[in-house]
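To: structure subgroup
Subject: Chain for Friday's discussion

All,

I'm putting the inputs and outputs inline so they're searchable in the archive.
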Amino acid sequence: MKNYGYFRVAAAVPRVRVADTRFNTEEICRLTSEAFDKKVSLVAFPELSLTGYTCGDLFHQEYLAECAEEGVRRIAEVCRGKAASVVIGAPVRYNGRLYDCAVVIWNGNIKGIVPKTHLSAAESRWFASGTDFLSKDNYAGGTLLDNGKDCIREGFCAKIRYAGQRCNISPNLLFEVGGSTFAVEIGHDIWAPVPPSTYAAMSGAQLIVNLSSDSEISGRNLMRKSLIGSHSSRTVSGYIYCSSGYGESSQDLVYAGAAYVYENGALLAENERFVRESSMITADVDIALIDNQRQKQNCFRSVCPDGTTSASFWNRYSRVHLGQPAETDFKAGLFRNIEAHPFTASEGLDERCREITDIQTLALAARLEHIGCRTAIIGISGGLDSTLALLVTVMAFDRLGWSRERIMGITMPGYGTTSRTKSNAVILMEKLGITLKEISIAAACDQHFADISHDPSVHDATYENSQARERTQILMDLANKYGGIVIGTGDLSELALGWATYNGDHMSMYGINGSIPKTQVQTLVRWAADNRFEEVKDILYDIIDTPISPELLPTDENGEIKQVTEDLVGPYELHDFFLYNFICNNFSPEKIFFLACKAFEGEYAESVIKKWLKTFIRRFFSQQFKRSCLPDGPKAGPVSLSPRGDWAMPSDSWSGTFLDSIE
């Protein structure tokens, strides 16, 4: 059963009774069984969940620790025969000291015990720090032994007989489950200046589990989420946080059962706090995505936080192999949201639009001022791309304090120009107060066809590309004549698909839209209409509603657009989804197809998605030669195909390997 790089995790918050280990054990067993039913591969419980976190001086009672150990034995039996890792919190005695620990169980075996490193002032009254196990002697290395149940690196961490089994005890344990590796830290560890999980992530842990007991005060939850989210982002990891809930003593503090699952800074799942019942959240963490992101970051393969090299740092951790993860059918159900429109996701959209617009505007203003430009030349078609480029140019001129009349908008009607697009272009330019010029390309193209002996009734690539190149020639020559530069209008989606005429609309003197995908162009124009250009709002909205077309083929009998781009190359919302996951996430076409089927379920049939994904792969590879010689332009979003560092790809790369994976 294919997992597509996903790993199902859960954070369970049981209702507890302070010091009632029997009740707590049974509740943990019940939630563990529920996690097994959901085909979870890793389930975490809160700090000291077997006894309750708020036992106070009862932690000094020998009997409480013995009861907790018996509870671990009972939970281990429930886990026997199950391919899931269960991480529970328990007090563990060792060498005359008591430790606040996470006990890791897999298939009935206790595979390791991780003691808490950073203790609060109150906790140090009862517990010792896990740093006891990190003396120099414990870095001696040694051979890896296998006793049939546990893999133990002798001389690397302490050995303990606990709940009838022999296992490792150390803060520096990494647990391997198939192709995934997780580490454990406890409670206050995350609040340390350098949390232990920082080192664990640098040593290969893609998942961090935090068993916590964090009390609630006003504003604490926002602070906690901000901390965990940013830590997950810095360590490029999945982070499973699980804190104590109802039943803990309310003598002085309240515990609300906060639980979250983060992935590289993004919140995948969150628990409802302040409930009286036990609860559990489940999420599918993308281990492949984490690995892909780390692969692109030099900090994960060079120097570690203490200045040592990654090679020497790696050897500080014992690696314990648990086995294979649960057989989870991710096709049947995926416990995570798949964003169908990653470039225009609703969360924070207004701020992103404002920021992208400001990036484009400042970039163009800096370029114009640097070269002492007298004018800007833009071909205005009445379509989305040229409209966005015009709006950005107007804002750049306004910021520089230059007259808008120095912007020259050229409308160049041809064989396929409709009255709707031409009218919108003219009215838009007039209302914005720029200089307007109309130059028809029909006569020039007729002459060109005669010169090269091309029959104008044959509407092939020569027929279409001749018009695009004629328009570019006009713009370039006007820029020379008036001492200006040609502002490029082509967008990122067109560059990805190669949907541009080489040395035609493919070329400009500054490509302002080069990192803006088509779906985002539409969103930015709408945002500009609502926030910056109220005086032309109606025109902008009509441009948004106009079918996307290069208008290179003659109109239909009613004078309407006959050549609709998405009928030819496919829906841009699909291509932008493919592009984002191919470039940003480095996913295989097979995984992209799987995700697209989830994201667009009910909108497109699987056969349609596969058809356009193949089109995307073929065109993306075959059209690289156009991207190898792109003009300058600012990177405003997460994806850029600039050959000057953002995307380096040979123009003769073979697409067959990638196409095969879709099948």
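Points worth raising on Friday:
Residues 349-370 form the longest helix (22 residues).
The domain at 6-323 is CATH 3.60.110.10 (Nitrilase/N-carbamoyl-D-aminoacid amidohydrolase).

D.
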